[in-house]
Amino acid sequence: MRIDDLARQAWRPLWMYKMRTSLSLLGILIGVAAVIALITLMQSASASVGGRIQNLGSNLIVVTMNPLVQASNARHDLTYREASQLGRLPGIALAAPVDYETSVVSHGRRQSPATVYATTPALTSVLQYQLAYGRFLTALDVAQHLNVVLLGADTSLQLFGHTDPVGKTVMLDGEPDTVVGVLAAKGAFFSVNQDAVAIMPISTFRDWHHVPQVDSVYLRARDPGLLQTALGAVNRHLSRLLTGSNRYTILTQSQILTLTQEIAGLLTKVLVGVAAISIVVGGIGMLNVLLISVSERVREIGVRKSLGARRLDVLMQFLLEAVLVSFTGGLLGVAVGIGISVELTRALNLEMMLQPVVPVVALAASVVLGIVFGLYPAARASRLAPADALRFE
Amino acid sequence: MMMLEEVSKFYRGRRETLALSSVNLTVEDGQFVAVVGASGSGKSTLMNILGLLDRPSSGGYWIDGQDVARWSDARLAKLRNRTIGFVFQSFNLVPTLSARENVELPLVYRNMPPRERRVAAEHWLVRLGLEHRMEYRPSELSGGQQQRVALARALASNPKILLADEPTGNLDDTSTRDIMHIFEQLHGQGQTIVLITHDARFAAVADRIVALERGVLRPEAEAASHAN
């Protein structure tokens, strides 16, 4: 049979029985759309997180104290003074001890949940924050244990709307604090809103909570070339200072980046696996509809054979029907997947990263699936004996 | 010329059924043969074997001197396409295709270019009075019109033999007379026809009448009296 005739013979029943065709391509459509949306979302999130980590600078070092150390007589806490002294080690330019707390900041009746960073002026330099209003913390704020606070962009927006809140008073942990500045918006980092924050002097925080140890120390090496020197010095110093094992974790920007990419890669694999399963389930749905279609058209197959159709003609017609269904499903799935990706990345404020290979591979996979799942019904149709098929009621 | 020699056909199920028993039948070119018989007598089995839709369990089948009983499926499909035109009781038009496309179908399997087969299809549809129904789908046609489309499809491939299985079985009197008239005309033009029918009036139009009884072909004189 000529290829154009084959295509016409395969297309016609698909067009005539639109409901059946739509149902059989729906599974493939959903599967392909899910694959594309998930991969695009993961890649966009990963690129965005990676970009932000890179923006932190390649000379960032983060020391995190491990809270789960069990050794009873081991010394595993780092005091504020000890943390600050890390700044004097060879190769280190700045050290910012940090205590964290999740709390609620309020102004009048308005409330805003926020992560509280109790730290020194160095943190804003280490993490390269920008200001929207007012000023950063100063050494004087810390030295004089002042009740002052820097608000994140979202926290400020919730409490004060679009007005400048500098000089106004907010309540934090039951204490009044004067707003001295508002940070420029940073967006989400690993789905954590970096703009719902309050930054206050660590000295004031310790007066309130009487915590002897710090949770983390953010350090900046003098320059990227001195990173290894700085890391070695920090490690040696902390090993001498603290006893017991697993007392602290040191991460550099490149390690954070690698770790993030590894997590993102793993998550992508898991999600692609789930989405691939959904494509296969879609393929099984299509197989089911094709088998029904063959059993409904047994007589037609008999007629075609009586008119001179060979086994191969019938096989190719039904196989092409399956491939047309899966290709159309795949094509619509690509369109829907891209549409979902655009909307999701817009909603999550991410830059969309869609590699052209993703829709191409998804489309190719759906065609292969069409061939694989179409082969059995097509072979069944082609093997029907014409006399038996014509007798079929 | 078609020639069946000692053809038997068994169906194997829980019990073996004998559908045809040692049938000998020769149909000369240009002959109009009517096969009569009760339901279950083996008429359709005979038509399936004559039409190369089924193989005999034993015996020989020659078409124009070629022993086709052991041919491959693909070779039989090709021979069927070029030699035999079928008309069925229940029309058996492909529901997704228009009248014209149905008539073109055997030519599609012959790889005939679209323009040529369109001309052939339209020629037969016009000849059978369906010039205003060419683009209609089977569901939009009456029974008589559908059978004429089926007849056009059988004739469009210019077959050596026209095999018709109860072609008027589902038709009213007017359509039956129409179809009978067309068959007579075709026979007048030299078309070889094998007709399976219950209808004695229709069988009477044929040159020869053969009767099947429980798979056995009865002598022609008895068959003629049976038909009358």
3D structure, described in words:
The complex is a heterodimer of chains A (393) and B (228). Chain A is α+β, with helices and mostly antiparallel strands. Chain A folds into two domains: 3-52 and 259-391, no CATH class; 77-241, no CATH class. Chain A contains 13 helices and twelve strands. In chain A, the strands form two sheets. Chain A has a six-stranded mixed β-barrel with strand order 2-3-10-5-7-6. Chain A is elongated and about 100 Å long. The two termini of chain A are 28 Å apart. In chain A, 41% of the residues are buried. Chain B has 228 residues and is of the alpha/beta class. Chain B has one domain (27-52, 73-227): Rossmann fold (3-Layer(aba) Sandwich). Helix content of chain B is 38%, strand content 26%. Chain B contains eight helices and ten strands. Classes of the chains: A alpha+beta (393), B alpha/beta (228). The interface between A and B is medium-sized, with 27 and 29 residues.
Summarize the structure.
Chain A is an alpha+beta fold and 393 residues long. In chain A, 56% of the residues lie in helices and 19% in strands. Chain A folds into two domains: 183 residues, no CATH class; 165 residues, no CATH class.
Topology summary:
The complex is a heterodimer of chains A (393) and B (228).
Chain A: H1 3-16, H2 18-55, E1 60-65, H3 80-85, E2 92-107, E3 110-119, H4 122-126, E4 131-134, H5 139-143, E5 148-151, H6 153-160, E6 169-172, E7 175-183, E8 188-189, E9 192-193, E10 197-201, H7 202-209, E11 216-221, H8 227-241, E12 248-252, H9 253-296, H10 298-306, H11 311-347, H12 357-383, H13 386-391
Parallel strand pairs in A: 3-10, 5-7
Antiparallel strand pairs in A: 1-11, 1-12, 2-3, 2-6, 2-11, 4-7, 5-10, 6-7, 8-9
Chain B: E1 2-12, E2 16-27, E3 32-37, H1 43-50, E4 58-63, E5 66-67, H2 73-83, E6 84-87, H3 99-108, H4 114-127, H5 143-156, E7 161-165, H6 173-188, E8 192-196, H7 200-204, E9 208-213, E10 216-218, H8 220-227
Parallel strand pairs in B: 3-8, 3-9, 6-7, 7-8
Antiparallel strand pairs in B: 1-2, 1-4, 4-5, 9-10
Helix pairs in contact in B: 3-4, 3-5, 4-5, 5-6
